[in-house]
Design brief:
15% strand; alpha+beta; 4 helices; 4-stranded antiparallel β-sheet
Length: 124
């Protein structure tokens, strides 16, 4: 019985340790930006109800609890594509923007990086 409990505890540790990591943290941080960007857009009457040009334009009281780095410690990239469309991008595990391992949030939903870059290439 004790041996079974030990194996179960070890399995739980393995599952819990594997259930996080940089990608999960990155996605969590990116998703947290979505509602805040929507609030900004909805209240940005002077700006034609557009998303911000940069994240620095956001009111500090709205963004104080939000991180601007991904789970690997690299800065997130924000792009305003149109007044009603943005990307928030993590360079992914390799730390290089513009390739398949990037994590892309567009208007609050995750999309395949290759499809996003085909439609809106990164400027280098």
């Amino acid at each position: 019985m004790n041996r079974m409990l030990g194996v179960a505890a070890l399995a739980l540790v393995v599952v819990v340790a594997g259930c996080g990591g940089p990608q999960i943290l990155t996605e969590k941080r990116m998703v947290e930006w979505g509602p805040i960007l929507n609030i900004y857009m909805g209240t940005n009457i002077q700006g034609g109800n557009s998303f911000p040009e940069t994240l620095d334009e956001m009111p500090p009281d709205l963004t104080a609890d939000l991180k601007r780095t991904d789970g690997w410690g690299n800065p997130l990239l924000y792009r305003l594509l149109r007044i009603d469309k943005y990307n928030l991008i993590s360079a992914g595990p390799d730390g290089e923007f513009g390739n398949a391992d990037d994590i892309v949030l567009e208007n609050g939903a995750f999309y395949d990086a290759a499809k996003i870059y085909a439609a809106s290439p990164l400027k280098r």
